[in-house]
Amino acid sequence: MEHAIRFYEAGSPDVLRYEPIQVGAPGPGEVRLRHQAVGLNFADTYFRNGTYPIPLPNGIGVEAAGIVEAVGADVRNVAVGDRVTYTGFVNTLGAYSTVRLVPAAPLIPLPEAIDSETAAAMTMRGLTAAYLMRRIYPFQAGETILLHAAAGGVGLIVSQWAKLLGLRVIGTVSTEEKAAIAREHGCDEVINYSHENIAARARELTDGKGVSVVFDSVGKSTFMASLDSLRRRGLMVCVGTASGTVPPFDPQLLAMKGSLYLTRPALADYIADPADKAELAQRLFDHVASGRIKIEINQRYALEDAVQAHRDLEARKTTGSSIFVI
């Protein structure tokens, strides 16, 4: 019997239900994909709690890797037996499942050097890191960035990629354990925000100048500290809202704090063009296959344990990447 996680109302992790499902034949443009591993991302909690509204009942999860079992009409990019990975947004919702029908277009063939667990742990996080490092800002070696949640899945990849570009990385974490992990993966300096002032420490570490770019995946609770950490004409990149969405503010604030730039990018817009997606995926796969970037899978869950997985994620108990093993 095949299974999937579904939910019927927005709310806490307890709304998630592990249910039996039946999966038929793929329609035109679809494949039937048997999952081997499924990614667990903080964005999943936004669908579950209603931050990202979707029709209910619905499935959850937007990232997984597995083997193509059947293909529908007009599918040209993959074939039966191919190992693939995918990530997306609403068009791939429902990844928390043992097998599913999914549009063929988002599927990315996997090279032999990348196994399914690694792929599920890194496709969304890795492509996010790829566009942050290669599309958002024209980095020059020697520049300094501030990276929030440096011990998280995206954070560990970004910090390693940043070092490949010759950047100085200041990471923020909540515990000394996470500080050690961040340092092991490329952070030159680490700010423990549980007892250090982020902006004051960032200024101190940059001789009062501030950093060139802040990558802020926390949101509401760190927004002002992030702005205050930037150099004149620095760039604030809002890449997540783990602590809540940023309240409305007067854009004049950006001028008052040094003519700052602000962007709120979404992965979907950076991989919408197939050529861009293929290039970013190739860069990511090359770095991982060569060992230049290591993917840390620090939590593995059974699919039926999705409630506990979401509790751990929201309680900041996880580091690196988390996956469901099918």
What does this entry look like structurally?
It is a single chain. The chain contains ten helices and 16 strands. The protein is α/β, with parallel strands linked by helices and 326 residues long. The chain has helices spanning 42-49, 116-134, 153-164, 176-184, 198-205, 223-228, 252-256, 267-270, 274-290, 306-314; strands at 2-7, 17-21, 30-40, 58-59, 63-71, 83-87, 99-103, 108-109, 144-147, 168-173, 189-192, 211-216, 230-238, 261-263, 297-301, 321-325. Strand 10, helix 4 and strand 11 form a beta-alpha-beta unit. The chain is globular and about 60 Å long. The protein has two domains: 2-123 and 290-325, Alpha-Beta Complex (Quinone Oxidoreductase, Chain A, domain 1); 137-264, NAD(P)-binding Rossmann-like Domain (Rossmann fold, 3-Layer(aba) Sandwich). The longest helix is centred in the middle third of the chain and has 19 residues, at 116-134. Helix 2 (116-134) crosses helix 3. The strands form three sheets. Strands 3, 5, 6, 7, 8, 15 and 16 form a seven-stranded mixed β-sheet that branches. Strands 11-10-9-12-13-14 form a six-stranded parallel β-sheet, sandwiched between helices. The chain has a three-stranded antiparallel β-sheet with strand order 2-1-4, with no helix packed on it.
